[in-house]
Amino acid sequence: MVTEFGIILLYFILGFLFVGIALVMAALIRPSHPNPIKNSTYECGEIPIGEPWIRFNVRFYVIALVFLLFDVEVVFLLPWAIVFKQLGWFAFIEMIIFVVILLVGLAYVWGKGDLDWEKPKPYIAKLEDLVLGKKKQ
């Protein structure tokens, strides 16, 4: 007799087998006609310039994480707004605190300048500029 955990293990095994068989069948059936154009990096129809492995600006990730943070806020606010009248003042005050914490986080990120898309490049003084007394133009 198979127990409840045995049934769960059976589902996991069947799931892995299904995925494995599907991947093997797809590799056997699909056509494979590689050429230089198919193997090139896709850049919106433009001819790629340079290497594809370049340093990616971390600002993209920061903005994506901030977006994700406020997206999760909406996930919490929507169910709360639907049953707002039934929850009472305690839940209202809790949600106000939640939104204030998120706004403080937004103000911090904004004040730090992480939401600015283009930041000015820092001026790095050269030794001869310091010796000759030249200033940044």
Protein architecture, described:
The structure is a single chain. With 137 residues, the protein is mostly helical. The protein has helices spanning 4-29, 36-39, 59-82, 84-87, 89-112, 127-132. It starts with a helix and ends in a 5-residue tail after the last helix.
Regions with pLDDT < 50 over 5+ consecutive residues?
none
Distance between the termini: 83 Å
Mean pLDDT score: 82
Task: Give the overall silhouette.
Answer: flat
Biggest sheet features: none
Counting copies of identical and different chains, the oligomeric state is single chain
Derived structural class = mainly alpha
Number of strands: 0
What share of residues is helical? 55-70%
The value of Rg in angstroms is: 28 Å
Please count the helical segments.
6
Q: What order do the helices and strands follow?
A: HHHHHH
Which band does the percent of strand residues land in?
A: under 5%
Can you tag this structure with a few keywords?
137 residues; mainly alpha; flat
Walk me through the topology.
Blueprint: H1 4-29, H2 36-39, H3 59-82, H4 84-87, H5 89-112, H6 127-132
Helix pairs in contact: 3-5
Short description:
This protein is 64% helix and 0% strand. Helix 3 (59-82) packs antiparallel against helix 5. The protein is built from six helices and no strands.
